[in-house]
Amino acid sequence: MNPRIRNIAALVIFGGFAILPVIAHLVGDSFLVVIATRILAFAIAALALDLILGYGGMVSFGHAAYLGFGAYAVAILSRAGITDLGLHLLAGTAMAAPFALITGAISLRTRGVYFIMITLAFAQMVYFFFVSLSAYGGDDGVTLQARSTLLGQPLLENDTTLLYVTLALLVGSYLLALRITQSRFGRVLTGTRENAVRMQAVGFSPFRYQLTAYVISGCIASIAGVMLANQTEFVSPALMNWHRSGELIVMVVLGGVGNLIGAVGGAVIALLLEEWLSGMSDHWPLFFGLFLVGIVLVSRDGISGLIRRIGGGVK
């Protein structure tokens, strides 16, 4: 995407969420802030997935596991009396990183549908592990006594503060991912997606670059899990089921694969559509599916592709 269009899109999306609490106050609907926080958290997860899917060509069908790591980091530490958000984020990434390193090292020895299936298998192993974890409610999950604290204070109990903290984490994750993709590392990763054999022939190790990106992606996704746990004040294995991984892929495809701000926009549109359509009909997934098919038929690059055409077709 043209950098100018990309920057405008980022400014519109992030700026829109920044002023949303004011709009919610003016219209007297505080639920808008709650929905927006949920959207921002999932946008972080979609961004993380697009880093490896769009730039590394790795179709992970188990990225919801990292949401679970972040969420359960909050539940486990909170029960132990550790409530600081920074420590929760650190614990979430500390759980996600070794899992991504080990499973990624195994998964990356496969290609295509085999990679998809093995990431799914690893994620389901984690899912069933937490289902069997009776100390934290098993399949029923566990309710948090309170949200994480910030600077030693229960600031996140305020929905507006939680939204701004989640927005700050999304912006930080976006800038980090953008920096990675524009660096030498990102160019090698993209080259590996296009032709791994050629990249190896010129002296690069595709495996190391892909594995590093996979670990980074898992860590970013765990941040989304931490914020989702705080938003709902409830943690359950359902957060890491394979259906959730499929939803993340849909968000990325809808926004445009290989476009970071597109992944964020895809998460925003997908969840807004879900909220709107579910209020109209119990069969809302049918209409959502038709919308997704229509977008894909019109533009192979999703909504970001449509924006690029409107902006003059400059890539």
UniProtKB/TrEMBL annotation:
Membrane topology according to the record: Multi-pass membrane protein
Domain of life of the native organism: Bacteria
Cell membrane in keyword set: yes
Main subcellular location: membrane
Record keywords: Cell membrane, Membrane, Transmembrane, Transmembrane helix
GO terms, molecular function: branched-chain amino acid transmembrane transporter activity
Official protein name in the record: Branched-chain amino acid ABC transporter permease
Organism of origin: Paracoccus tegillarcae
High-level lineage: Bacteria, Pseudomonadati, Pseudomonadota, Alphaproteobacteria, Rhodobacterales
